[in-house]
């Protein structure tokens, strides 16, 4: 089985990995869960592609709510690791890479510091900018790490809900079926999450709270 124990990059890799781990998880749940947890945090910490496939795998292996909580928590922890690395060790490299974007964002955020949690939630729900850009840029925008953590934890729950739900149905798919993640209903739900997150911002602006 060793050739299949790798980061899944497509649906076929995911099927093989799920088939193997489904055999081991009954007797070695702790080992599988801890390995999944550490691997997910690693991918998020160093912006390695593949976290979406792991989210789907989590939905196939674990109870739905366990998988959703784990994926959200791992995303928040891993993003905070990237946040700390960028803020303490990678300042020069980050400014060279996305310095222009950070300058523009900083101008826009100066007047909205009190809404940082809401904006973080929306950024995590939205497909753009990429998560790695948010992770690296946030410490240079003076985003509090508490708002960054909770904004990530809550914000990724929406997309993760879709991925975990797809994973829960993985065993019922035939080899010719494809995973349909972003259906019109799923997209509408993500948009709704973003709108709800921004409602407090609109209320504060309207009544100058």
From TrEMBL:
* Membrane topology of the entry: Multi-pass membrane protein
Q: Name one Pfam family in it.
A: VTT_dom
Alphabetical list of InterPro entries matching this protein:
TM41A/B, VTT_dom
Q: What sections of the protein cross the membrane?
A: 21-42, 62-95, 147-169, 181-203
Looking at the record, the residues that make up the VTT domain are 48-168
Q: Where in the cell is it found?
A: Membrane
Q: What is its main location?
A: membrane
Q: Which GO terms describe its cellular component?
A: endoplasmic reticulum membrane
Superkingdom in the source lineage:
Eukaryota
Keywords (A to Z) from UniProt: Membrane, Transmembrane, Transmembrane helix
Question: Single Gene Ontology BP term?
Answer: autophagosome assembly
Q: Which family does it belong to?
A: Belongs to the TMEM41 family.
Which protein are we looking at? VTT domain-containing protein
> What lineage is on file?
Eukaryota, Fungi, Fungi incertae sedis, Mucoromycota, Mucoromycotina
């Amino acid at each position: 089985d060793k050739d299949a124990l790798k980061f899944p990059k497509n649906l076929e890799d995911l099927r093989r990995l799920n088939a193997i781990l489904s055999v081991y998880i009954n007797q070695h749940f702790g080992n599988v869960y801890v390995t999944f947890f550490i691997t997910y945090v690693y991918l998020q910490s160093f912006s390695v592609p593949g976290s979406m496939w792991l989210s789907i795998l989590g939905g196939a292996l674990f109870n739905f709510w366990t998988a959703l909580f784990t994926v959200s928590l791992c995303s928040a922890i891993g993003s905070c690791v990237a946040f700390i690395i960028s803020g303490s060790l990678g300042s020069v490299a980050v400014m060279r890479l996305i310095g222009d974007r950070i300058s523009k964002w900083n101008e826009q955020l100066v007047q909205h510091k009190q809404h940082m949690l809401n904006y973080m939630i929306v950024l995590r729900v939205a497909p753009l900018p990429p998560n790695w850009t948010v992770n690296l840029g946030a410490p240079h925008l003076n985003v509090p790490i508490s708002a960054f953590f909770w904004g990530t934890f809550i914000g990724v729950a929406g997309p993760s809900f879709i991925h975990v739900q797809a994973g829960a149905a993985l065993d019922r798919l035939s080899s010719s079926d494809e995973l349909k993640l972003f259906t019109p209903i799923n997209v509408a739900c993500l948009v709704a999450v973003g709108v709800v997150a921004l409602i407090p911002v609109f209320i504060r602006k309207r009544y100058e709270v």
